[in-house]
């Protein structure tokens, strides 16, 4: 956001007919949507081989080209990423997937390695409320007594779950927040009876 890295995640991506999804995309999406709301420029960058840096990927590719120069770019990339992704990344880098790796020019190879290690994923929009997994925003936590979940602004009103300004990572954290705050509020209200 605004040229600064604000988040870094490693995990599964799901390539769909509408774009990128999966736990990593959903967790990172909160930062992009918040930046968009604030009018700040934001970009999402993806390392398709997160265990390798640029130099390592380039070295691997050069080694493979010297050992088996007639193997196709798609086949070589297919050793590291799924076949359809290999073809798409090659195309993105301006290389035909069937090109023999021994024929890939240095500038094309470097563009391909950049696509594998630092691919910018263009974000056009989010999918909206109908597809949202988690909501963000809500009543600020400072307005709630965390020991009882009672509103500091409206005594007698107990606030729990996603009505509060909390959103957690994918993986059940939001469910746990809802259940835990509900438990705290229920216990507090039970003591009043």
Structural class comes to: mainly alpha
As residue ranges, the low-confidence spans are none
> What portion of residues belong to β-strands?
5-15%
Helix content: 25-40%
Instruction: Give the ordered list of helices and strands.
Output: EEHEHHHHEEEH
How many DSSP-defined strands? 6
Q: Looking at the structure, what is the overall shape?
A: elongated
Q: Characterize the largest beta sheet: strand count, sense, and whether it forms a barrel.
A: 2 strands, antiparallel
Spatial order of the strands forming the largest sheet: 1-2
Oligomeric state of this protein: single chain
Look at the structure and give the mean pLDDT. 91
Spatial extent as radius of gyration: 23 Å
Distance between the termini: 49 Å
Number of helices: 6
Question: What are the main properties of this structure?
Answer:
single chain, 193 residues, mainly alpha, two-stranded antiparallel sheet, 6 helices, 39% helix, elongated
Question: Can you give a write-up of this model?
Answer:
By secondary structure, the protein is mostly helical. The protein has helices at residues 23-37, 54-67, 73-77, 83-92, 106-117, 173-192, and strands at residues 14-15, 20-21, 44-46, 119-121, 144-145, 150-151. Strand 1 (14-15) and strand 2 form a beta hairpin. Helix 2 (54-67) packs across helix 5.
What layout of secondary structure does this protein have?
Blueprint: E1 14-15, E2 20-21, H1 23-37, E3 44-46, H2 54-67, H3 73-77, H4 83-92, H5 106-117, E4 119-121, E5 144-145, E6 150-151, H6 173-192
Antiparallel strand pairs: 1-2, 3-4, 5-6
